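quick q for whoever's on today - can somebody do inverse folding on this one?? i tried earlier but teh output was garbage lol. tokens:
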């Protein structure tokens, strides 16, 4: 229960003239920021369609051939290398670090926007969410400067957060998911949390209206994370939980291993960054090519953020043999891990496809249904990568639509299970690294000690 003193302080904050101006500014900023982000993701989606569908058709192929990722990813590496090494902000946040970090400012915006628009459509196994949030925060701060406002550092942080929330809200299913993400990421912060949340709600709601309106007026698609069709399902039974919990653990292990690979790649690219960035892009191309050769399917399924593949998998999961799903998890998982430490983009979208693939592959087990497998896969993957189990459960529920009500117990259990698995593995890795560091330090001191 909130103490009376904190309640009074919150009331004074919410009714103060400065905070009311901040709320109005959030609404006003939400519209132009969301409009800019709409065309940003719309152009990126059109470029992706052109590279992976229109160009192969123009070259006489029914779909992208097995070798298609080799030139596209090589080009992506050549574009990314100078941006990462020579531009201000190095092209944005490093994906293996998640979606956190300080807000991206206006000076870093050109590099962030260009690397996302130029490399993500070429097959980089990352999502648009991180660049989109960076664009939103940068545009919000730039708008404040143009209006010659001079907010204090705390207000600037709120404005940048509101801009990021407005930008990402619609590709995550609307303002509710984005606002819950703010709540869960901020932790228990009392009155400060409420003061932060309200501008984010208003900005993201205005942004959702813009995205909806322009999507209908222009006919453009933005490739948001959505499942237009899911398999019919009934409520989960004992068999779904019996297999669902181990499946969630498996997803936590797989995705944590992918992030571990990303951290090693990041260390490796710390030296000779430009050359090694291109090498990593070629390694990603090799993974996508291997998937196409192993399965006889299009390399596009393992490339990119995975939004389109996730929708196709949910619409017709029986069209995917288990062997193809395993190849997808292995090849795309390795490619995702390499991209996390070397290129730029968001870590969430590809991980959701990986989790869904694991869940549907496990649906062949006796007692586990296809829709429960899809549900637990999406929830477990999102919780593992974001570290936000509540946000992951709500995101999964919105993706599933009406079927989510029956699946909510399994969704919540899978989300929490995968989150705890990832935390346990991360803690063990950190403890082992500390022990190795301590051992190396002791060995160095022993070697340096003069003999008697």
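ok took a stab at it. sequence:
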């Amino acid at each position: 229960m909130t103490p009376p003193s904190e309640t009074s302080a919150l009331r004074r904050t919410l009714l103060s003239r400065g905070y009311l101006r901040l709320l109005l500014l959030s609404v006003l900023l939400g519209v132009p920021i969301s409009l800019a982000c709409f065309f940003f993701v719309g152009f990126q989606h059109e470029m992706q369609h052109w590279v992976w569908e229109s160009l192969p058709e123009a070259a006489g192929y029914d779909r992208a051939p097995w070798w298609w990722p080799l030139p596209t990813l090589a080009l992506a590496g050549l574009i990314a290398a100078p941006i990462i090494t020579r531009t201000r902000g190095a092209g944005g946040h490093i994906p293996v670090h998640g979606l956190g970090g300080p807000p991206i400012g206006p000076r870093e915006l050109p590099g962030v926007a260009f690397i996302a628009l130029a490399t993500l459509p070429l097959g980089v196994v990352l999502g648009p969410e991180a660049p989109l949030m960076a664009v939103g925060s940068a545009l919000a701060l730039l708008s404040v400067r143009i209006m010659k406002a001079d907010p204090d550092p705390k207000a600037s942080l709120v404005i940048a957060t509101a801009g990021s929330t407005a930008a990402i809200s619609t590709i995550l299913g609307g303002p509710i998911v984005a606002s819950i993400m703010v709540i869960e990421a901020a932790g228990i912060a009392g009155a400060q949390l409420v003061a932060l949340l309200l501008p984010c709600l208003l900005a993201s709601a205005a942004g959702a209206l813009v995205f909806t309106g322009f999507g209908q007026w222009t006919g453009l698609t933005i490739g948001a994370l959505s499942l237009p069709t899911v398999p019919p399902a009934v409520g989960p039974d004992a068999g779904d939980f019996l297999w669902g919990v181990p499946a969630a653990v498996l997803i936590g292990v797989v995705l944590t291993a992918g992030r571990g690979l990303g951290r090693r790649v990041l260390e490796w690219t710390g030296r000779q960054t430009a050359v090694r960035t291109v090498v990593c892009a070629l390694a990603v191309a090799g993974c996508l090519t291997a998937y196409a050769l192993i399965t006889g399917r299009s390399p596009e399924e393992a490339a990119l953020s995975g939004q389109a593949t996730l929708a196709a998998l949910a619409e017709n999961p029986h069209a995917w043999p288990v062997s193809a799903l395993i190849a997808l998890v292995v090849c795309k998982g390795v490619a995702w891990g390499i991209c996390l430490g070397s290129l730029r983009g968001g870590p969430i979208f590809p991980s959701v496809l990986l989790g869904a693939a694991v869940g549907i592959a496990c649906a062949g087990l006796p007692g586990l249904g296809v829709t429960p497998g899809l549900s637990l896969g999406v929830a477990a993957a999102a919780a593992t990568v974001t570290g936000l189990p509540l946000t992951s459960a709500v995101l999964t529920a919105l993706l599933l639509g009406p079927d989510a009500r029956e699946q909510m117990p399994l969704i919540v259990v899978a989300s929490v299970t995968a989150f705890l698995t990832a935390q346990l593995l991360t803690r063990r890795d950190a403890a082992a690294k500390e022990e190795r560091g301590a051992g190396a330090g002791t060995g160095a001191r022993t070697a340096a000690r003069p003999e008697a």
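fwiw The chain has 16 helices and no strands. also The CA atoms of residues 215 and 221 lie 7 Å apart. so keep that in mind when u check it
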